[in-house]
Amino acid sequence: MSVLVLVETEVAGQGEPGLSVVAEETLTFARGLPGDAVDAVLVGHVGLPSERVLAQCREHGVRTLFVSTDAQLERYAARAWARVVDAGLQGSGAAYLIGGGTPRGNEVLAHVASFHDVPMAANVVQIVQSDPLEVERQVVGGAVLERIGLGGELAVASVAGHAVAPVPSAEPTQTQVEQVAVQLTPADLAAQVRRSEVREAGDTSALTGASVVVGVGRGVGGADRFTAAEALAERLGGAVGVSRVVTSLGWRPHHEQVGQTGSRISPDLYLACGISGAIQHWAGCASSRTIIAINTDDEAPMVTKAQYAVIGDMHEVLPALLEELG
Amino acid sequence: MTDVLVCVKRVPDASGEVVLTEAGDSVDGRYAGYTMSAHEECALEIAVGIAGESDGEVTVLSLGEEDCVEQLRAAVAVGAHAAVRIDALADAFGPGDVAAAIASAVREKEAGGASYDLVLLGNDAADTGDHQVGIRLAHLLERPVVAGALTVTVAEGRAEVRADTATGTEVYELPLPAVATVLEGGVQPRYPSISGRMRAKKTPIEVLEPGVEPRGNGRLGLRVLPPPDSQVEVLGQGEGAAARLAQVLRELGVVR
Question: So where does FAD get bound (chain A) (predicted)?
Fold first, then answer.
């Protein structure tokens, strides 16, 4: 009985692709599941894995890494990627299939669960007990945890971001690479990305990976009043994130939204300016290492939940801070 | 003419404090009220736009007890033409059950002459966040599916779906009929007009049987996370706090 982990890659800078942080978190989580081995299946990367990916797999105790070299998989098609994962399941005989709680992870896992007509638990945060398997997962935007039983021949689950810290295995392995062949049908490729449009440089596309995020809420007061927040984000080498009300008012684009229906972020610092801190927003920023709130209301939830706070108008505090930072 | 089916769910409004029922097995929305998931409001807006361009119709569907009629009428008020309720105890239905019940309803309606070129759902419900109903439905109906759509347009029997990624936009083209799950953010839901509200009051709600025996969602219990103890250190008031704030940023190592 083994665990199969769906892993995704990311390219940092100009370097060769490596496993994403989420993939390393998921591998760490996988080692807590019952089973005699952890295998992985690589998606989002056509061809043989890079040496960096292999080194990470060895560090995380991966026994076999299943890959596909089928060029039809180059452009994302969730159902086709799910066929590769399914081939990995057949190769490993795993009883548990897990992946990151990312848009890709949840989508591909849902296809695999559909193939087998088995349950799937999204955004799991911890294992409650192993036999029979019970897990806890985030519901209601993370404000509530649901305990759920995952019985049956195959348990499918995605792991919520930052549910565990990525830690190398105490027992590194010699990872074997196994190529899987998939017979893709037209139906598998019917919903495939036709083209990708890369956003212009200089925007906040790096929000989810930023080490500092300057969050802006309704308190900013208008679409033309982001200058100081943008300047601070640039000064700190970070990105601007906004609350849902800011995007609803049309002041900023949706891809900058932090929260339950936006991006979930985990920066070293989240500087929340003029944000009250509704549950839906908190769901997106709660994983920040340090939160500093700037708010005129000293009883706002964001202030009471933060580690540090400044009570005042962001339009007075931010310019003064920028001057201090030089 | 493009006809669209939009699936919506009655969910507790969790914008304030989240309270569980006495039994601890579901979220109690009696005080905060109930609403439609934000993703589904956007799915409805997309559907009304698509149908409006081609003289098509929007049918809105919800699985639940009598009270989910409130969300169905809200959907009619902003432009849906017809409403269907699958009569069922929603809490007893897991995501696979919901998908099977919707598939059953689609087959029943299409056998009766309806034809849904597109089925739109929210990417995930605001309460259970399952991320799978739309995909399971597409498998059951044997139709292509894209998750995370921000916009959907239809032309010449194909749907163009645009979805956000961390670095830009991905564009899909699907043959119809198809399924898409919608994320909030690509469109702005409209407000109901007075005439829309009036029409919503009069629109009959068709009731269907679920057509499946639910297997359940495996839920064993819920618990609300306790709020963290407030240990906030107030650095000061207004611009006078800037020096101390800058010092903290340096201590945290985030100043370049």
Answer: 218, 243-244, 257-261, 274-281, 295
Rounded to the nearest angstrom, the gap between the alpha carbon of residue B96 and the centroid of all alpha carbons in its chain is 16
Residue owning tokens 């955004």 = A123
Task: Sort out which chain B residues have CB atoms less than 8 A from A150's CB and list them.
Answer: 218
Rounded Cα distance between A5 and B256, Å, is 37
> CB distance A139–B245 less than 8 Å?
no
For this complex, say whether ipTM is above 0.85.
Answer: yes
What whole-number distance in Å separates Cα of residue A187 and Cα of residue A55? 35
Residues of A in contact with B20 (CB under 8 A): 144
Range of the domain at B176: 4-208
In single-letter form, the type of residue at position A8 comes to E
Smallest CA–CA separation between A44 and chain B, in Å? 14
Closest CA to B79 of B104, B98, B60: B60
Q: Go through the domains of chain A in sequence order and give each one's CATH number.
A: 2-179 (3.40.50.620), 207-325 (3.40.50.1220)
For residues A174 and A62, give the distance between their C-alpha atoms in angstroms, rounded to a whole number.
8
Is residue A142 annotated as involved in ligand binding? no
B233, part of any domain: no
Q: Output the six-digit token pair for B154.
A: 């239809």
Structure tokens at A211: 């080490």
- H or E element that contains A26: helix A21-30
Q: Is A78 on the interface with B (CB under 8 A)?
A: yes
| Residues on chain A touching B249 (C-beta within 8 angstroms) | 236, 269, 321, 325
What's the alpha-carbon Rg for chain A, to the nearest Å? 21
Residue B78 domain-assigned (yes or no): yes
Q: What is the CATH number of the domain that holds B139?
A: 3.40.50.620
Decide if B234 is inside a domain.
no
- Residues in B closer than 8 angstroms to A139, CB to CB, are 127-129, 222
Distance from CA of B121 to the nearest CA of A (A): 14
Q: Kindly state whether residue B246 falls inside one of the protein's structural domains.
A: no
Q: Are B81 and B59 in contact (CB under 8 A)?
A: yes
Dihedral over Cα of B98, B103, B108, B110: its sign: positive
Q: How many angstroms separate the CA atoms of A134 and A151, rounded?
A: 8
pTM, two decimals, is 0.90
Q: What is the pLDDT of residues B236-251, one digit of tens each?
A: 999 999 999 999 999 9
